[in-house]
Amino acid sequence: MPASPSRISRYRLPAFAVALVLLVGVAIASLTAVAGLRSSNAWIEHSYEVINRIEVVERSIRAVEANARAYRLTGHPDFRSEYLAAAPDVDRTIEALTMLIRDNPDQDTRARHLRDIARQHLAELRRLHDLQEARGAEAARLATDPGTVLQQWGEIEGIGSQMRRDELGLLAERKANNHRQAVQLSVIVILGMLGSGAIMVILMTS
Fold first, then answer.
1. 32 contacts 169 by C-beta, under 8 angstroms
2. In this structure, are residues 57 and 121 in contact, taking their beta carbons and an 8 Å threshold?
3. Rounded CA gap, 52 and 143, in Å?
4. I want to staple 67 with a disulfide (CB 3.0 to 4.6 A). Which of 76, 82, 148, 176 is the partner?
């Protein structure tokens, strides 16, 4: 037996209230999920920036090393100028990296170690440069200790590689989390809209 109009009208207001609550709930859940996605996207961008900063640090150290070596081998003043101009950039690039990763204790420790090793390497290059200025290129070449240079470079590359691996791992986790949040947002919106829409359709056709 069909429901009477009075019985239908009795349930109409509560049903509208349920539909409204669903819509409000979807709106609140969506806003929360969107805020989470924005935060997740910001951390993904952060990881990309850290990886880029690591590469900038490595390039700046290589530039100093390359120009110092070229000046030692050739004595050409252009290489000396390039070396002197590039040397201060190493500290600046490492400080920028350290500021960027200060939220991560492990990475911060590695960055500080990298800074210490880089400064040791720069001090050795400066010693050889000053020796060359005082006694000539041949004296600087004879005073070069390949073992020390290789050891310092090994540590610099090792720390940089470890920092890059860790940040790539964090990047993968953050991307996976971002994907989960995007899926959750889609499910919340779809289910909420379907639920409230179904109630509205039932009420309108009753």
1. no
2. no
3. 35
4. 82
- 150-162 pLDDT, tens digit per residue, is 899 899 999 999 9
AA identity, residue 96: A
Low-confidence ranges of the chain (pLDDT < 50): 1
- What pLDDT is attached to residue 15? 67
> If phi over 0 gives left and psi between -120 and 50 gives alpha, with beta otherwise, what is residue 183?
alpha
Who's near 153: CB < 8 A, 6+ residues apart? 65, 121
Q: Report the C-alpha gap between 134 and 129 in whole angstroms.
A: 9
Q: What is the pTM of this model?
A: 0.77
> pLDDT tens, 60-99?
999 999 999 999 999 999 999 999 999 999 999 999 999 9
Gap between the Cα atoms of 167 and 165, Å rounded: 5
Q: Tokens for 85, please give them.
A: 């101009």
Please give the span between the terminal C-alpha atoms of the chain, in angstroms, as a whole number. Answer: 14
Q: What is the CA radius of gyration of the chain?
A: 31
- Enter the DSSP assignment of 4: P
CA nearest to 72, candidates 80, 82, 60: 80
Q: What residue type is assigned to position 178 of the chain? A: N
The tokens describing 139, both together, are: 């004296």
What are residue 144's phi and psi, to 5 degrees? -70, 130
